[in-house]
Every structure is written in structure tokens, then in C-alpha cells.
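Objective 1b: paired records.
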Amino acid sequence: MESFLDERRLVSRVLRHWHDMAVGQRFPSRGQIDPWLVGDDWASCALIELAPELARSTIVVAGANLLPPNHQALDGKSIAACPPQSLLATLIQYLPRFQPNGGPLSVCGTAGHGPGPVLFRAVLLPLSDDGGAHIDSVLAAANFRELHQGEDKELRTRLQLAILDVEKGQIWDVYNPLWGGWGRSIVAGIDHEGAKLRHKTSLQTMTCKTAEMIQHTEKYRFIGYS
């Protein structure tokens, strides 16, 4: 239980810094990162510069905790150089969600890392030198612990993905009995009452609290951006 608290603390610290630096703009810039994270936290973070052709994106810096034990540094290398059996490789697979204009993501579950599987919690945060019109980098932070033999039968270890901000233009799957179950919908607008969701087929609308959309994954599933 303590390890799970540690995971939440690291993700919460990084997310809080990101929000603090983004005041007055949609996203902070990559140049604002260096003063934030010092000490042990930085070893669990990675900074990736996105290229128009995503496969050519560059790992600006990758903390040692995200790589297999004793692996050589990947700073300045292409994401293609990332070892497949690593937590960093698991996080890299979510980079397409930030092109062209994705919001912050929370990911948790199991992954292969070094000699065996681990249980992890991570956050991926968009960065933009122009305040949010164009995402040019992603800051990732993750913590983990080893997954013990047989533990996958006791814990919910399936990968879970959650958007951390509800924004206009996002596409969600929403469970609504009035729609006959799950329905694909688009966020048509956001106001003080919540997010206005419009069913993509019937065009029926409903208003949902954004906090519930983020927290209740049994009823709301973030899909992507229109």
C-alpha cells in the first residue's frame, strides 16, 4: 500500500508543477521544466521532443528509473533507440495521442520492465512553446514496483487510460441507458454546469460533470480528439 501512495505522490507532484507553470496559458513550455524537478523525481521523468513524423521524435532526457537496470543513457537519441522491455517504451506508445492537440493523460497498469513485470502509475503532460496552439514536447513521469508472482490475479492490472482535462472537441464513449447503453459522443462545449455531450449518431445531448467523467471510467471512456 505504501508503494501505491508513493506512486500517487510522484504523479501528483509533477502534475501540480505542470499546472502551476501553465497559469495564463493552456500548456507550459519545455523551457520552463528545468527549475521544477530536482532530486529523486527527475530520475522517474522523461522529456520527449515531438517531430512532425512521430517516429523521428527525440528523447531529450530519460530518467534512469524508466530504463532497465544499468542501461546506457538515451539522452538525445531517437525514440526508436528505446529498449522494448522498459517502462519508457510503454509510455512512448501513447505519444500519438498528443498529435495534433491532445490533453494530459494518466496511465496505470502493468508493463514489462527489465527482468520482469511491474505495476506502474504514470502521467504524460503536453508542452508547448506557443502556449498551447501546437504541442511540441511531452513530459512523462512514472513510478512502479515489481509485480509479484500470482499478484495479477488479486489486483486489477489491466492498463487503464484516463484524460486529465475535459475539453471541447474530445470524443468519449458514454454509458447512458437512454441511449441504449454505450454511445460515442463529442464534447460540444463546456460551461459552469459541466460538459455538454452530443451523441454522434442521434445528435441527442446530455450534460455531465467533468470531474465525474475523469473519475468514473466505468461510465466514461476517453477516446481521442475529433
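Objective 1b, second protein:
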Amino acid sequence: MIKAFTKKIFNFFGYNIVKFDRNFYGLKHENFDLIIDVGANVGNMSKLFLNTFPYAKLYAFEPNPLNRNDLKKIKKKFKNRFTSVFKGVGARNGFLELNIHKLHYPSSSFLKLSKIGAKEGSEFTKVDLSVQKKIRTPIVTLDNYFKNFNLKNKKILLKSDTQGFEVEVLKGAKNLLKAINIVIVEANFTDHYEKQCNPIDIITHLKLLNFELKGFTYPPGINNKGEILGTDFIFKKKN
């Protein structure tokens, strides 16, 4: 029922949702050369990418210093295939304050939790999401970081999970996105963070850059009222 409701929403705005199979969301045949994991957290998705695409090199961007040891363990296992970059990613180079939720690292963000987000997030995670710590964090744009890389004829996947900061990440990757084939991006359906982007913002931004929404990586999360909280979208560059 939730899937049907979500499909109707996007059909209303003129978008079609294509169901992906379980073969890594229909992407396993892509044979990526480069994977960019923005918001890597402790690296669980990075490890899944590296194991699924054995010829790919992966760059993991993670601003939370409390996750460094976990990412260093991945480096020991995958060696030259894995590079961790302990910086945030945004629309411009500089510094921002990272709001760290010490009991639930994945919900940490450069944006502040809204009242609704603090309440629903705590109910969903079963832990207190009060901000425990603020850290001044260096920010880099993806365009700046990869500007000297030879990306010609490379198959590239970008994944962004940045808790409402996704469009800022994409704004700083305008040139890089010309070389990217697949984008996987988190989308929040409720205003969990102040000044966060919404799903239509993400879809519109990527549509202007010739990307088409193709599906989801997992069923949408829902709250106890049956409302959609969020999911990850898969976008593919049009030929």
C-alpha cells in the first residue's frame, strides 16, 4: 500500500518509478570503476559496495571523527581500493558545525533537528537524538576534490546520505556529475531537519542534469501514523 501510494505521488508530478530487482537494486552488472560514498558513517555501505563491485575503487567522505577507527579497519582490509576522507561535503569549500548525535551517529547532520525530527527520530531509533556535541568541520566540494582525477571513460557511482544536506552536496558536484552514471541519494519526506531539502528538490535538481529517477534501494521507512519518513532514490543518467 505504501509503495502504491508513493508511486501515485511521483506519477502526479510526471515521474515514473521502475521496480528494481534484488541484484543490488539492478546495478550489479554495471562494473563500476569508481564509487564515491558521501556520508559513509562507519562504512557499512562502503563495504557492501567494495564486495559487490570487486574492481571499483571507493572514496568515503565522513565528517564525524568518532567514526575514524571503523573506516581505518576497512582500509586495512581493502588497502588501495579504499580511501577515507575525513571531511564534510557541500556546495563550497570552508567550515561548518557538525551536530553529532552521540547515541545515533547516522542521524548527525550539518543541519539542526527540527522539533518534529527530534520527536519522530527518537521514536524511530529508540534512542535520544539530542545533540551531544558540535564540531567545527572542514567542508570540500566534490568538484574540487576530484578536479585532477582522470575520469574519462570511467563508470562512476555517487552515493549521498547526508541527512537533509543532499542538494548542497550535489551543488558542489556540478562538473563531476557530468561524468557520473548512477546517483543514490537519501530523501527525507518529513521535515526532520531545519532548512533540509525535500524529495522534489532532489528530483528537480538531478533532472536538470539529465538524471532520471529509476527506483528505491529499500522500502520507505514509516512512522507509527503510517506516514512516509524517507528512503533512498536511485537515479540513472539518460543516454
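Residues 31-91+139-237 form a domain with the Rossmann fold fold (CATH 3.40.50.150). DSSP finds seven helices and eleven strands in the chain.
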